[in-house]
Amino acid sequence: MAFLGLRFFGGGDAAAEVKKTFEIDKPDAEWRKQLTADQYVVLRGHGTERPGSSPLNREKRKGIFACAGCDLPLFSSETKYESGTGWPSFWQPLPDAIGTTTDRSFFMARTEVHCRRCGGHLGHVFEDGPKPTGLRYCMNGVSLKFVPAAASS
């Protein structure tokens, strides 16, 4: 995979605040073997990919966006929308898919979003999204994988 221009922010308070045990809890060496370098920086190191760098920004097919770390379905394509931010955005996650913590890096408080099963960092949620929720789940594309819906016969 080509370098995505990731910026590594070092985890900060959000990394410390995420609960320590998850259904999938692997040693760091296993995560490094399983994930690409870019995925590791984002999912395990709380990094952020460069805006506009993810092919998932242009994904328009029906399907599910799952965690790149553990395959847990996170978002339906039905809730994806173009936010203009440069990152894949959704107005609602699937039930019981995510967890949140307070990220106090960069001298501000934001709501960090992580996979509830493996704890992988996905992005942040903001209160400037569309109806019906008014939320914008701004996700790193490298932390997701797209699974297209089965073709109808």
Please give a structural write-up.
There is one protein chain. By secondary structure, this protein is α+β, with helices and mostly antiparallel strands. The protein has one domain (12-148): Peptide methionine sulfoxide reductase (Metal Binding Protein, Guanine Nucleotide Exchange Factor, Chain A, Beta Complex), CATH 2.170.150. Helices cover 13% and strands 26% of the residues. It has three helices and nine strands. It has a six-stranded antiparallel beta sheet with strand order 3-4-8-7-6-5. Strands 2-1-9 form a three-stranded antiparallel beta sheet, with no helix packed on it. The N and C termini lie far apart (33 Å). 35% of the residues are buried.
Notable characteristics:
Metal Binding Protein, Guanine Nucleotide Exchange Factor, Chain A; 3-stranded antiparallel sheet; 153 residues; globular; alpha+beta; 6-stranded antiparallel sheet
How would you summarize the topology of this molecule?
Blueprint: H1 12-17, H2 28-34, H3 37-43, E1 63-67, E2 73-76, E3 80-81, E4 89-90, E5 98-103, E6 110-115, E7 121-126, E8 136-139, E9 144-148
**Order of helices and strands, N to C?**
HHHEEEEEEEEE
**What's the CATH superfamily, by name?**
Peptide methionine sulfoxide reductase
What is the tally of beta strands? 9
CATH fold-level label: Metal Binding Protein, Guanine Nucleotide Exchange Factor, Chain A
Sheet having the most strands: 6 strands, antiparallel
User: What number of structural domains do the residues give?
Assistant: 1
The tally of helices reads: 3
Q: Helicity level, as a percent range? A: 10-25%
Distance between the termini: 33 Å
Principal-axis shape: globular
CATH architecture level-2 label: Beta Complex
